[in-house]
Amino acid sequence: MKTIVSGIQPTGAINIGTYLGSIKNFVALQQAHPDHHFFLFIADTHALTVPQDPVKLRQAIKELAAMYVACGINLKQTSLFVQSAVSAHQEMDVLLQSFAYMGELERMTQYKDKALKQTSGIRASLFTYPVLMAGDILLYDAEFVPVGDDQKQHLELTRTIAERVNHQFPDFFNVPKPLIPELTARIMSLQNPDQKMSKSDPNVKSKILLTDDAAIIKKRIRSAVTDSEGTIRYDANSKKGLSNLIRIYAALENRTISDIVKRYETSDYQTFKADLGDLVASHLEPIQARYHSLLKSQELIDILNDGQAGAEALAIKKVQRFKKKLGLGLNR
Known about the structure:
There is one protein chain. 53% of the residues lie in helices and 8% in strands. It folds into two domains: 2-180 and 297-326, Rossmann fold (3-Layer(aba) Sandwich), CATH 3.40.50.620; 204-292, Tyrosyl-Transfer RNA Synthetase. The protein starts with a strand and ends in a 6-residue tail after the last helix. The longest helix has 29 residues, at 298-326. By secondary structure, it is mainly α. The strands form two sheets. A three-stranded parallel beta sheet has the order 1-2-3.
């Protein structure tokens, strides 16, 4: 079975950058790869690298799962589940710790960046986060992994670990390849286009959440930072703010950047922003309706239970085979 694996942490409401760069792309990937089965998980164990309120975390897990479904994933082609519900993820993490080196983990950019911001109380799980991620992927012998620019380094470590295991146990793991969307790999902050749009950004004007109402969406687009030139053209270096908005427009309409620029080449920023605000609001309206209907439904629980069963069927066998290769336990 050909597989593709992806996951998102349940650490807050999803913004449009994550939607365009990950979830919407995931739906498109399903259409482009009808012969692949997708393992899509809510990465709640990864969320424990920082302190979490248990009540809020459980609610965030449910909200994220509901949003995945609302955004149109093909459930016949997908095992959607909560990471911690499949214990094989934690088992594989422990086993792979012996195939990752300290120096490799110390070089991880995300770890170094977060360690600089948090000089004390850094959890060991933050340091070993990439090994758990490797286990998430290798459990299902993923052929492809959709990743953003900020996760490419972690996937490279996953490939290194897989090759290291395969050197000792030939062809045990499939070595996964990255899938990086060119257009929407990085949607930037609406207020600081030098930074990626982030759900953790304290500036509410910097992002659009998938649950924001139409009035808020249009207001955020209107107040988005652009420039004083007044000409609508794409230049990711000198017109970062406007280029970011053009990328959002193009991604939502599944059009090229040049198509959008040509359409608005004689327009002003006010007209362009107004149209983009209308587009974002209308695009999210049916997603929001489906999301709210799922949030408190038995349907969502059934979907997650079915996904867990599908994931466990494959993951448990992989862990058992790995333990046997490593010489753990007794032959029975």
